[in-house]
Amino acid sequence: MIAARLIPHDPFSEKASKAVASKSKSNASDGSSPSNKTVQTSDDRTPEQRRAQEWRIAAGRETTEAFVVAFILALLFRAFLAEAFVIPTGSMAPTLMGAHKDVFCDACEYNFRVGASRENSAGGEGVTVVGGVCPNCRRVNALDLAGETNHATFNGDRILVNKFSYVLSEPERWEVIVFKYPGNPKQNYIKRLVGLPGETLTLRHGDVYVRPTGSDQRSQIVRKPYSTLMAMSHLVHDTDYVPEPLNQAGFPSRWQPWTEGAEKPPTDSWQISREGGRFTASLKADDVAGDTTQWLRYFHHVPTDQQWQIASNGGSLNDVDPYQSKAITDFYAYDSYIFVPSGAVYASKPFGLRQKLLGETSGVTFNPTYQSGESLDQFGQMAVWGGQDSNREKIGRDGMHWVGDLILQTKIETDSDAKQMTLELIEAGVQYRCTIDLASGEATLGIMGDEAHRFDPAEGSSEANLSPTAETPIRAGQSHQISFSNCDDQLLLVVDENPIAFQTPTTFDSRTYRGNSANHPRYSAANPLDAAPAGVGVTGGEATIESLQLLRDKYYISTNTGKFGEICDYDMSRYRELTGRQGAFKRIQDSLASPQQWDEFVGWDIRRETTFELQEDQFFPMGDNSPESLDARCWAGVKDRIKMPGDVNRDAWRWSDESYVPRDLLVGRAVVVFWPHSWNSPVPFIPNFKRMKLIR
């Protein structure tokens, strides 16, 4: 940072004023010709008045100079230090928002955003986004475009980019970078840096592996720092947001008491309450059976449209199986946008200043058949659900890939008699556990499948690392906020926002016990495994849980094409060949939604692994919104190059068919969201302060 210190000075001292006046009088009386001499008129002002005038002139000049200097400094600041950008599209959602709708779910009140950049890409007149799907309760929210100004389309986040970052230091993995798009160097792109120079990068089952380019070393998974992991995570379910219509209808909670072999929740275990829209799970003394662990497990059952209709009409859903479940997928709320031709909503749609800034509907004529805020069934087959819903099958309702990397967060209090707490996450039938002794606070990690699996050994040690341990502040009779994650082949424990350091590594290589064909969700009637992939257990005492959140990690789709309908891990031509079926995307989603079909699903064996080689000064960026990001995976040869003027530097386009960004095209590092969108009501222009943040 450069600070300029301005030292005030007065060039018009009284002495200088007298000298000027004396010289003026001499020139006026020497008889010179008017053509060569200045005729000096008499000045009746007092010295104080003359000095004041001179001060005003000097001040005006210095003010002008200050503005000029500030303007020049601003240009230099923009050119060399920092620059503001507006995010136009959703390729970095949910980290950074492009044009979008900001929605509060009308059932559970969870605040989420859905993409609306297609409105802009269609010229603002071709299509209109009319709804989206809540990621928490999966309610389809119809937008009230006629009555709610905050359902207008908001511009993308405004961010500040440090253009000096990579002058002094090397770009680091997981940083959000801005660069010139190799297919059109006049256009800036923003993505997350994933691959570094000299690496060969492989995308496999949602994870990223690297090895040195040119070597035959076994590739290693790359892991996100905890802060980055959380910034990139996606909500699966949050008990703090209870959908009241489902609650009133008796739709079962996703968290249920469970014991092995049970066909229905036991009554002598955890008791679930959702009264007043507040979730609590309580384990009372009468339900504590000696040293038996009482389990509370998550079942990923999502209400269907029919069940939502019954609940909305005041019907009963008490007969829904509480143990019903489906696979957790790479569902993106941002990509659940539902759009229709604009003519189905508007008869005329003027875009004046007030409509753009405030979302006002004055002067807008709506189609008489449009029922603002009502069911989207009114649009029939006109509605498209998400970017890949080419066959109008509502593909945007769910994801296409199973995600096993999960993060469990809970606020839990135990009584003084409790002996042990256990947190469990299941991936591909393997149990990843954290067991906490509530007398000593010692936490022990374990990986249990058909046998106990090893963590990576400590550096320089040949001893098997089966059970990493650590000291924690957790004790019986206390309340704590706990986070336990299994992401990127690493277990992490965080207590009251403080990461816990274990004595030996908590990393592992799941490929040693879970090959390609075995890397898929598992289910049995006796133990639901991946159909109930998260659990909290307490042994020996009472406990109360006030909140539970389940999140998932990012899933990077393995592809090298941007062809519509091919942005998925599956070899779709092979899938159609094996099944003889069309409408493949919807059938894949149906298979993921049925645990009984998991073992027979042909998609597991036709998932692609894609590899990219990077040489010196070559960087590999990808968007956080993997299904809808044009990035280094798939931009080579996909986007038409713009026609170049005759005087353009053609060398600037020489990387347009490469799957990397050269160092020469790096612009800088994205630092902060300094101005997200402003709300239209109740007070216009009030920014969405909650989204002002450092970019991680």
UniProtKB/TrEMBL annotation:
<dbReference type="InterPro" id="IPR000223">
    <property type="entry name" value="Pept_S26A_signal_pept_1"/>
</dbReference>
<feature type="active site">
    <location>
        <position position="191"/>
    </location>
</feature>
<keyword id="KW-1133">Transmembrane helix</keyword>
<dbReference type="GO" id="GO:0006465">
    <property type="term" value="P:signal peptide processing"/>
</dbReference>
<dbReference type="InterPro" id="IPR019533">
    <property type="entry name" value="Peptidase_S26"/>
</dbReference>
<dbReference type="Pfam" id="PF10502">
    <property type="entry name" value="Peptidase_S26"/>
</dbReference>
<feature type="compositionally biased region" description="Low complexity">
    <location>
        <begin position="18"/>
        <end position="37"/>
    </location>
</feature>
<feature type="transmembrane region" description="Helical">
    <location>
        <begin position="66"/>
        <end position="87"/>
    </location>
</feature>
<dbReference type="GO" id="GO:0016020">
    <property type="term" value="C:membrane"/>
</dbReference>
<feature type="domain" description="Peptidase S26">
    <location>
        <begin position="152"/>
        <end position="211"/>
    </location>
</feature>
<feature type="compositionally biased region" description="Basic and acidic residues">
    <location>
        <begin position="42"/>
        <end position="51"/>
    </location>
</feature>
<keyword id="KW-0472">Membrane</keyword>
<feature type="region of interest" description="Disordered">
    <location>
        <begin position="1"/>
        <end position="51"/>
    </location>
</feature>
<feature type="compositionally biased region" description="Basic and acidic residues">
    <location>
        <begin position="7"/>
        <end position="17"/>
    </location>
</feature>
<protein>
    <recommendedName>
        <fullName>Signal peptidase I</fullName>
        <ecNumber>3.4.21.89</ecNumber>
    </recommendedName>
</protein>
<feature type="active site">
    <location>
        <position position="91"/>
    </location>
</feature>
<keyword id="KW-0812">Transmembrane</keyword>
<dbReference type="InterPro" id="IPR019757">
    <property type="entry name" value="Pept_S26A_signal_pept_1_Lys-AS"/>
</dbReference>
<keyword id="KW-0645">Protease</keyword>
<keyword id="KW-0378">Hydrolase</keyword>
<comment type="similarity">
    <text>Belongs to the peptidase S26 family.</text>
</comment>
<dbReference type="GO" id="GO:0009003">
    <property type="term" value="F:signal peptidase activity"/>
</dbReference>
<dbReference type="GO" id="GO:0004252">
    <property type="term" value="F:serine-type endopeptidase activity"/>
</dbReference>
<dbReference type="InterPro" id="IPR036286">
    <property type="entry name" value="LexA/Signal_pep-like_sf"/>
</dbReference>
